[in-house]
Amino acid sequence: MTKKAVVLYSGGLDSTTCLAIARAEGFEPYAMSFAYGQRHKTELEVAKANAKPMGAVEQLVVEFDLRKVGGSALTSDIAVPKDGVGSDIPVTYVPARNTIFLSFALGWAEVLGAFDIFIGVNALDYSGYPDCRPEYITAFETMANLATKAGVEGTGRFKIHTPLIQLTKAEIIRRGLALGVDYGRTHSCYDPTPEGLACGLCDSCRLRLKGFAEAGVEDPVRYTVSSKE
Questions:
Q1: Confidence of residue 229 (pLDDT cuts 50, 70, 90)
Q2: pLDDT on residue 126
Q3: What are the phi and psi torsion angles at 28 (to 5°)?
């Protein structure tokens, strides 16, 4: 019997690879995406257009507005940094975002009768976000099994799958290509143009371009002219 899994799916490179891995491991993926007031709304349009073509059985888009909280370049008028990936936690970190996302995923998983949740966090080629670390995922998984009816009654144990967490961006790309992922149908940029072109200069674009370069593969998405100069 095929098991259901909730996959957090933003339309980006990592979450799309994660969706493909869930399918390859024999799960029926239920994609969960979020409209949270993010600056880079293009990612949501990509997610809506591609969830089912990428293999999701169903997609649920949850809407809430983190602009009311602010505190991030992705949810306020703070400028998105374009000067390279630094060592400090960047202003593109969205306070408590993965905790909120995983909480919604946990609720949907309970309703679906699913005990597996996939999230494309990465602790190697990433921007230093605290909610992408293995110890955070372990803590959330513990909480999930304490805070749910299924966990208390012992009818199932929730597992948070993080298949990308110890992979470089190049390794993620190679894994996705081996599974047939079309990276031309993904979006990673934090500050795209109104037409949806990637800037090529934000942390997310730099990490993506570095990954494709190291994988020896050309990135199929379009970037602004300035990013290629």
A1: very low
A2: 65
A3: -90, 110
